[in-house]
Amino acid sequence: MKPCGVLGPTMATVEVRGLTKRYGDTLANDHLEFAVESGEIFGYLGPNGSGKSTTIRQLLGFQSPTDGTATVLGADIRDERALRSVRGRIGFLPGEPAFDGSVTGAEFLNYQGRLKGDSRRGELLELFTPPLDRKIREYSTGNKQMLGIVQAFMHDPDLVVMDEPTAGLDPLKQEAFNRFLRDERDAGKTVFFSSHVLGEVRRVCDRVGIIRDGRLVTVENVEDLLARGGKRVRVHTERPLTAEDLGIDGVVDFESEGRQAKFTFTGDYDDLFEALSAHRVIDVEIDEPPIEEVFMHFYGGEDGAA
């Protein structure tokens, strides 16, 4: 028999339905609706203060919603008993881990292992290398983050929820972490993480939700999100080129210096190649735009909000 509050089978590991959280006159989460599918990496994007951490605290049962609800691994977050029944299948890395600085890293992991298991501890410590014999109060931010990553994954959970997981990691450890996440996803893990670091979303996420002022602006595949931003075109021609020379729709933010021109193109590529064929082209590059440019569509001001 299912524990009270655990729903029937569903493809969604996390399903959010009308989730709302109000603090007095402040609406931190406003009727959020989204789902995180089993076996995907879902990025939850927004700047500090947009409502990301509030969502996470509700999903894990640390705060109660003002209205609406969500299910996590089939358990309704409003049902403490049901949520407790699935908590052992969840890994969590908070945005600012609150460690007891008086214990060593090894003592902390030993304690966590007794609580929830540590079958993957050795494997994880080969990738992430906090100095286990030292007191945690002596740790750098990066070492604390690595210790937090190990404890989040070492009991082999089905779902891992992380708040700004790469904060403090050096570039090499960030890349190792990204590879690790992709491998975990390929092995069937579900990962939900909040971030304001846009580059890592492009590298690891399958889908992304963008939150602005407590409201969900969009949820879509990362590739679709990037496609909406068009392509960045850089072209070197024998003679200087102007936007009027191209004479086609979809040319945005045209800039030129001498015989080099660059612009964003959102139109039909057959039209672009036909227009360029009328000019002697020395070199051309077509790349995806930086995800920061796409993100600014949602944060560049009220007129740019979707």
Can you tag this structure with a few keywords?
single chain, six-stranded mixed beta sheet, 11 helices, 14 strands
Structure summarized in a few sentences:
By secondary structure, the chain is an alpha/beta fold. 32% of the residues lie in helices and 30% in strands. The strands form three sheets. The chain has a six-stranded mixed β-sheet with strand order 6-7-8-3-9-10, with helices on both faces. A four-stranded antiparallel β-sheet has the order 2-1-4-5. It has a four-stranded antiparallel β-sheet with strand order 12-13-11-14, with helices on one face.
Structure description:
The structure is a single chain. The protein is α/β, with parallel strands linked by helices. Helix content is 32%, strand content 30%. The chain is built from eleven helices and 14 strands. Strand 9 (207-212) and strand 10 (215-221) form a beta hairpin. The longest helix is centred in the middle third of the chain and has 16 residues, at 171-186. The chain starts with 11 loop residues before the first strand and ends in a 7-residue tail after the last helix. Mean pLDDT is 89; it is low at 1-10 and 302-306.
